[in-house]
Amino acid sequence: MRARAVITLVLSLLLGACASTTSNINQSANAQKAAADNVQLGSFFLQKGEYEFALDKLNKALAFDPDYAPAHTVLGTLYERIGKQENAGVHYLRAAELSPDDGDTQNNYGTWLCLHGRGEKADPYFQSAINNPFYRTPGVALTNAGSCMLSIGKVDKGETYLRKALEYNADNVNALYLLADNQYRKENYLGARAFLQRYEAVGETTSTSLMLGYFIEQGLGDRKSASRYKSEIHRRFPDSPEAKQLQVINNNEPAN
Q1: Is residue 242 within 8 Å of residue 215, measured between CB atoms?
Q2: End-to-end Cα separation, the chain, in angstroms
Q3: Cα–Cα distance, 154 to 143 (Å, whole number)
Q4: Which of 52, 78, 131, 254 is least buried, going by the fewest C-beta atoms within 10 A?
């Protein structure tokens, strides 16, 4: 009878443990679902520009699950929108810590660091995104990394990132423009022209891109092409800073 009683007690304890574990799993799943639902609502309000409602839903998401990475990511975006950059950084970092294998969160935090004067710390996060075999848009992280490295003076590293970005998408307009500008700064005017022409074939014409074309052709000594860029700036963007800059340049040029 004692042996049977012991067996019954052990089975009872095991069944109780299983029930407790199942209950905990269910509670965790329910909390995560509630967090996800609130993030979805928060994202909806964020897109509509209703920031107070968005903040309320995102805070509720974290109340259900403080370690729900998407909630931290969307909160980072929200705080960026309303100008609270340090708060944004806190949440982007937390998302990156919680999701080290998620390329988007790693790229987001690397980009935030670079945009806010901390580019020297950004590269490991870009690398984490780029080297993730399951990350679907490595070209985005490569472009952001390239732009970041150029901004902190690591020109060769930045160019390497941008050229790799073009291997994923030859029509990556951001990479093409940045490479054109970088080649111009290195006084490789032919290389700059080649990248700018590729940009012009697929990208939006802006006063900035036209001005870069003007400077490149000036560097090449092609006055006819430079004049064409100048005319386009005055015709299409007469009130732009570039048009005013050209006016200053023209006024300072010696008369023939």
Answers
A1: no
A2: 118
A3: 14
A4: 254
